[in-house]
Each structure stands twice: as C-alpha cells, then as structure tokens.
C-alpha cells in the first residue's frame, strides 16, 4: 500500500530579488517591492510530502521523527532567521524567489531520503502565494 505522509514546518527569512546582470531600473520594474535594496522578510510555511510503500514491519512510510529532524537540519538551520542572499550558500548566485527556495529545499531533502520514497515540497511565501515542486 502506497500512502503519503506530511510534515509542516516554518521559517522566517529575509531576501531581495535582484538580477545582477540587469540595470537598477530593470530590477525595479520587474521585482518592484521585492527589489528593496535593504531586504524584507517573509514568514515562510513549508509542507513536505513523502510518498511510499508502508513498511510491513513498522507500519510507517517514514518515521516522522526522522523527517522532522531532516527538515530541521536541511531547512530550519540553513534558512531560519537568515538573510537568504547574504547568509546562505544556496542563494549566493540563485535569486531567492519562492520557486528557487522551494526547489533548493526539495534538492536538499531529496539527497537525504531513501531512493524508494517520493518527495514533494510546497512553500508558502504568504498565505495566498505558494509554489510546489515537482510541479
Ligand atoms: Ni519578497
């Protein structure tokens, strides 16, 4: 039996959307308020979905304690209360849009999960704006 299990998490982080190959005028036109040179913050909400076969011995797809610890190590420790542009390796060159943050979370968790498990990540930048990977 295949089933999906979910774990929610939360982090606060600052960012600035800025493409260094563009002029200030173009950055302002495309990114608007999110281009604010002094950065701004979001309360990000994360939903991690892991799908797989139920292990007949444990009755688990994945022990949620393990998933909780993985999210803590790969997401909260890296991003919570950080400036994503300045304080993280993941966004040194990648613009920290919700799309890219969601993808990097997926990538960082994916490498820590067993191959037989499927992973999907949904990231809310605001209560009404959210993204999901894989699409
Ligand atoms: Ni923003």
Rg (C-alpha, Å): 17 Å
**What's the total number of strands?**
5
Helix/strand-derived category reads alpha+beta
What is the CATH superfamily? 6-pyruvoyl tetrahydropterin synthase/QueD
Described by strand count, sense and barrel closure, the largest sheet is:
5 strands, mixed
Going by CATH, the architecture would be 2-Layer Sandwich
Strand order across the biggest sheet? 3-1-2-4-5
Distance between the termini: 24 Å
How would you sum up the global shape?
Answer: elongated
Determine the number of helices (DSSP H or I, runs of at least 4 residues).
4
The CATH topology, please? Answer: Tetrahydropterin Synthase, Chain A
- In percent, how much strand structure appears in the residues? 25-35%
Bound molecules: nickel (II) ion
Quick check: average pLDDT? 97
Would you list the SSEs in sequence order as H and E? EHEHEHHEE
Description:
The protein is α+β, with helices and mostly antiparallel strands and 135 residues long. The protein has one domain (2-15, 41-133): 6-pyruvoyl tetrahydropterin synthase/QueD (Tetrahydropterin Synthase, Chain A, 2-Layer Sandwich), CATH 3.30.479. Helices cover 30% and strands 30% of the residues. The protein contains four helices and five strands; from the N terminus they run βαβαβααββ. It has helices at 24-31, 64-79, 84-87, 98-110, and strands spanning 2-15, 40-53, 82-83, 118-124, 130-133. The chain has a five-stranded mixed sheet. A hairpin with a 5-residue loop joins strand 4 and strand 5. 18% of the residues are buried. The mean pLDDT is 97. The structure holds nickel (II) ion (NI). Nickel (II) ion (NI) is lined by residues 15, 34, 40, 42.
């Amino acid at each position: 039996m295949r089933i999906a299990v979910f774990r929610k998490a939360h982090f606060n982080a600052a960012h600035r959307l800025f493409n260094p190959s563009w002029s200030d005028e173009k950055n302002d036109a495309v990114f608007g308020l999110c281009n604010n040179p002094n950065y701004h913050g979001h309360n990000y909400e994360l939903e991690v979905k892991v799908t797989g076969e139920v292990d007949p011995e444990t009755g688990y797809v994945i022990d949620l304690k393990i998933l909780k610890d993985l999210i803590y190590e790969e997401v909260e420790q890296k991003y919570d209360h950080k400036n994503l542009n300045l304080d993280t390796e993941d966004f040194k060159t990648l613009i920290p849009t919700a799309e890219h943050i969601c993808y990097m979370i997926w990538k960082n968790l994916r490498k820590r999960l067993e191959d037989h498990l499927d992973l999907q990540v949904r990231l809310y930048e605001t209560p009404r704006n959210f993204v999901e990977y894989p699409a």
